[in-house]
Amino acid sequence: MRIGFDAKRAFNNRTGLGNYSRFVLDALVTHERQNQYLAYTPKIKNGLFPDFPGESTRLPQSWFDKKFGAYWRYRNVTRQLQKDKIDVFHGLSHELPLGLRAAGIGSVVTMHDLIFERLPALFNPIDRWIYHHKFKSACTRADAIIAISEQTKRDLVELYNVDSERIQVIYQDCNPIFKYPVPEEARQEIVEQYGINCPYILSVGTLEERKNQMRLVQAFGQLPPNDWQLVLVGRATAYADRIREFVKATKLEKRVLILENVPTDHLPALYQHASVFAYISIYEGFGIPILEALNSGTPVLAAKGSCLEEAGGPGGLYIDPMDVADIALELEKLISNPQLRDSLVTAGRKYIERFRGEHIAGQLTALYQEIANRK
Prior knowledge:
The protein is 45% helix and 15% strand. By secondary structure, it is α/β, with parallel strands linked by helices.
């Protein structure tokens, strides 16, 4: 089969959707070599995805399409797909171009989350309108839909009235850099560079209201006296300023560290050296940081109520993300009980086998074949 991909984010986005797109393409090229994979992108950011074969990358051809890349992705790319004899096209991030069915090309779209529908107050109204139109349109026109979690599948059924039979849950894995141990000396050097000098709880994610770091800090402040630190890593927003004000008011400056602009290649050391990883986001489509923690051999504290229990399985404890007392109670269990932490690490290492690239590439190929057979 010849499979085409909307690969804009694989070549231009360093985080979430870009990581997913690169993971899918890399897993397929590595483990399912019997097919041909062509990646379509309006532009390429140098150095972001150098391992993908250049001869399999497709850019806009005409002056108009190069000038108006968004329009090319939405409509005109279909002509290139026909010329390239694509059997199935995979929209990796909520979108599909027009005209695929009329062109005789099968289609599948990955839906990551509907957070903007669940938590509309956190999004600009115009953005919500655009997302709603694009996401729902793609679901309507796709031959099949991939949800990255059971939670996203439930949201699609409830909010968009998608037939559950059209949705297949196929997970993803994290960046492979989290699978390799960092030498102890290098790990210690990185940790000390950030002023970490005792056991610590790590939390990684944009500092924003949905990620709920304020309640994590409040819960940490309620713990009995201990020599632990809480380390928050992520891009700062106005919400981070509120956290800093609380930290100062409660005299936690030496115990709560907020780190911005941490290079990706430092994260494995921070994860692996942490004693606990906390990710108590109010709502998520999946929860890649939890996989990063489990691959790092770090036990997890995560939130109930969306998909984080799917991501962490038996490798974590789970709390009500709105209940500071509940968060503090489970944190105290993890801090005071090294045997519990060890048992969670052991269980987590077994659980993450289901997210391996080889397994997921096989699931994707089976779905592409099913779609191609319908033509």
